[in-house]
Specification:
Elements (H helix, E strand, L loop, with lengths): L1 E6 L19 E2 L2 E2 L2 H9 L4 E6 L4 H8 L8 E6 L8 H5 L1 H4 L4 E5 L2 E4 L3 H15 L2 E7 L7 E5 L5 E6 L8 E9 L3 H6 L11 H10 L3 E6 L4 E4 L3 H18 L6 H7 L5 H8 L6 H18 L5
Parallel strand pairs: 1-4, 1-6, 4-5, 8-12
Antiparallel strand pairs: 2-3, 6-11, 7-13, 8-11, 9-10
């Protein structure tokens, strides 16, 4: 399975902050926003990743990640010239996707919870066994602001509506989507909505009409944060700060995740720490690398 991070758009809800910088490069506490969705894909075992962004921002992302090899990843880039809707990502990324299944994650969404890797592996398992699509839902108090999903007790999807005035449930559709390879042709056949975009809700409804859409609920113990407004961006930063200080562990540390997932060696991890050694972030990575090297030294020979 391949992964796409959609990091385009003009970020108008964050003006004037985003007049000079891409939204997905804004800091969420101690890291660029895009570190969080990237780390989520990595935890899900996805290593071939396409970042779709605006023509003016491609070089900025390349400066941060390059080809991804330092993290044991394969990262490539495509441009979305103008906002054409979430579903346009599958058309832009057609060559990248090839014959594989794909996971799309929005560049301003943050997912937190110890069981996230298991949830993602379960989604991949569903796609591998029977195809179709898998969406993730999350209980919210203000469903009118989101795409809303109606599900039964067995998490079977009954309906999906985009920002309904009278929502049928409090379960919002989050910003991560798993699909089989059919999604490319489905996206190609979509008609633009009234706002001139190819809507992800239309993709989901096509899968739903064919009985091929599954839902996974993120319940207690999980957090889903949408950082698209100034208030939500600040809330996300406060949340990350609180959790990191309380636990002493970083959230969305892509270098640590690359090592824990066996994408890179401890020596490569230590080398990555040198790029930001003067910051607390770099010191955290170095501490992990040194701890792992000492652990290996103290192992008894077999």
């Amino acid at each position: 399975m391949k992964g796409i991070i959609l990091a385009g758009g003009s970020g108008t809800r964050l003006y004037p902050i985003t007049l000079s910088v891409c939204k997905q490069l804004l800091p969420v506490y101690d890291k660029p926003m895009i570190y969080y969705p990237l780390s989520t894909l990595m935890l899900g075992g996805i290593r071939d990743i396409l970042i779709i962004t605006t023509p003016g921002d491609v070089d900025k992302f390349k400066a941060i990640f390059g080809n991804g090899n330092d993290l044991g990843l394969n990262i490539s880039y495509k441009e979305q010239v103008s906002p054409g809707g979430l579903a346009e990502a599958f058309i832009i990324g057609e060559d990248f996707i090839g014959k594989d299944d794909v996971c799309l994650i929005l560049g301003d969404n943050i997912f937190y919870g110890h069981g996230i890797p298991d949830k993602f592996n379960y989604a991949r398992e569903i796609i591998n066994k029977k195809g179709g699509g898998v969406i993730f839902t999350y209980y919210v108090e203000d469903p009118q602001r989101y795409g809303v999903i109606e599900i039964d007790d067995d998490e079977k999807v009954l309906s999906i509506e985009e920002k309904p005035q009278n929502p049928k449930s409090n379960y919002a559709v989050t910003g991560v989507y798993f699909y089989d390879n059919d999604v490319v042709n489905i996206a190609k056949e979509l008609k633009p909505s009234e706002r001139g975009e190819l809507e992800i809700t239309d993709v989901n409804n096509i899968y739903l009409s064919g009985g091929r859409l599954n839902a996974i609920t993120l319940g207690r113990g999980y957090a889903w944060l949408d950082t698209g407004t100034a208030e939500s961006l600040l809330d996300a930063s406060k949340f990350i700060e609180m959790m990191e200080k309380r636990q002493g562990l970083k959230i969305g540390c892509i270098e640590e995740i690359a090592y824990k997932m066996n994408y890179i060696s401890v020596e490569e991890l230590e080398k990555l720490s040198n790029k930001c050694i003067k910051s607390g972030y770099g010191g955290y990575i170095l501490k992990i690398a040194e701890g792992e090297k000492n652990k290996n030294k103290n192992k008894s020979p077999i």
